[in-house]
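Hey there, shall we discuss this one?
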Amino acid sequence: MPFNSLQGIYFPGFCNLFSRILEMDPLSHSCLPVHVACLYELNETNKIFILGHQLVDKLPQSAIAWYTVGAFYLSTGKHHEARRFFSKASTLDPQMIPAWIGFAHSFAFESEHDQAISAYSAAARIAKGYHIFPFLNFLEVINRTCL
């Protein structure tokens, strides 16, 4: 069972919940980023691909559509392509925290620590008070100095 013990998250349960919400409101902007993140954590690359295409067709000027495309590329290990789409999402909506996190992850996965820290810091400026961003920056500093 995909259970992330570090965060106490049961991803399949959340994914099912968000799927039911999206059946009622397929374009729920509050639900879609978390749903995409759950699909990513469950390695549901095909579902992310299909959802990304649907969103780009329906909402080509929406940050959530391009965030989903970025998540697809991130899930396939194509970090440079993912970065392009996360960048587009954050340009369309500079306040979209998941796009900044995906952008940062795309750098972190390629050991580009300074850029990752910069992107995590941008997300932290938008979401003041969230504890995860200082932690992510700390991990990148550790990776930069120890590896």
About this structure: The longest strand covers residues 3-4. Confidence is low (pLDDT under 50) at residues 1-6.
